[in-house]
Amino acid sequence: MPEIIKDYDKNIIRIKKGDRALIFGQSRLSDGNMSFARGGKAEVIENRRGFFRRYDLELDNLAAAGLAHGNRIEEVSDEYRGCGAFGLEDAIPDVDGLVSDRPGLILAVTTADCLPVFAYDNNLTTAGIAHAGWKGAAAGIQSRLIESMMKFSGSKARDIHVHIGAGIKPCCYDVDNSRIEMFPPAHLDSIFIHRNGKLYLDLCSAVSLSLIEKGLPQSNITISGECSFCGGKYPSFRRMGAEFITDIAFITIQDNY
Ligand SMILES: [Zn+2]
User: Fold this and answer.
1) Rounded Cα–Cα distance for residues 97 and 124 (Å)
2) With CB atoms 3.0 to 4.6 Å apart as the test, which of 11, 76, 120, 152 could cross-link to 26 if both were Cys?
């Protein structure tokens, strides 16, 4: 395995510090459906195994959030290993974000237009991931993720890095006016765009602005340029309609990787 990869546009990161590595990634449309709610179990397991094999990671070590479009974060210990890896029934319920300091565990969420938010600290002691759609972002899941990481690892906000992966972007995310009142008044001018008589939401800005408010330096935040709707490389609920599938996004700390 190469030592360090930072390809923010492809949503692939591998960073090393000594024997410790921090890796995150996001599957693509071509990797197939990753959601047990959207396809047969055997096929999803095969797709997931194939995707993680490319990173030399085992699906058995995965812990997946059950997803509820809320702002709850679970602190994940070793006993969650395998939860939600092979079926929806034992995914960690009612949470949209996961945080852990356990090496070997793979934290995962599935998305299709919603944003995967990857977080880690400078010393690679703690990793976190969140699923942020408009409801979760408006409810502040990104801030809760950072608070959990700070509590868990003692990290300072300035030591935490966040990457916002592929999801629906303001080029395509038209919303109705009722969304405006869900977001902090101070951010409205930056996150809502009026264009050709329609209203568009910039979910990435909504997430990054609240992270900056939380104390993260802007230089610690990277954003994928990929729009899931018009880019065609990632699953999109809005584009695919009733036939939609999901990707899987993960982050993991690995020792002796
Ligand atoms: Zn777009």
Assistant:
1) 18
2) 11
Residue found under tokens 């092979």: 86
Q: How many whole angstroms from 232 Cα to the centroid of ligand 1?
A: 9
Q: Which of 83, 147, 92, 95 is nearest to 119 (CA)?
A: 147
**Which residues are placed with Cβ below 5 angstroms of ligand 1, an ion?**
169, 171-172, 227, 229-230
What string of pLDDT tens digits covers the 257 residues of the chain?
Answer: 557 888 888 888 999 999 999 999 999 999 999 999 999 999 999 999 999 999 999 999 999 999 999 999 999 999 999 999 999 999 999 999 999 999 999 999 999 999 999 999 999 999 999 999 999 999 999 999 999 999 988 889 999 999 999 999 999 999 999 999 999 999 999 999 999 999 999 999 999 999 999 999 999 999 999 999 999 999 999 999 999 999 999 999 999 88
Predicted structure pTM score: 0.96
Q: Is residue 100 within 8 Å of 238, Cβ to Cβ?
A: no
So where are the chain's domains?
Answer: 5-169+217-255
CA of 229 to the centre of ligand 1 (A): 5
In the CATH scheme, what is the homologous superfamily, with its name and number, of domain 5-169+217-255?
Answer: CNF1/YfiH-like putative cysteine hydrolases (3.60.140.10)
Dihedral angle sign, alpha carbons of residues 179, 183, 187, 191: negative
Residue pair 133/191 in contact (Cβ under 8 Å)? The answer is no
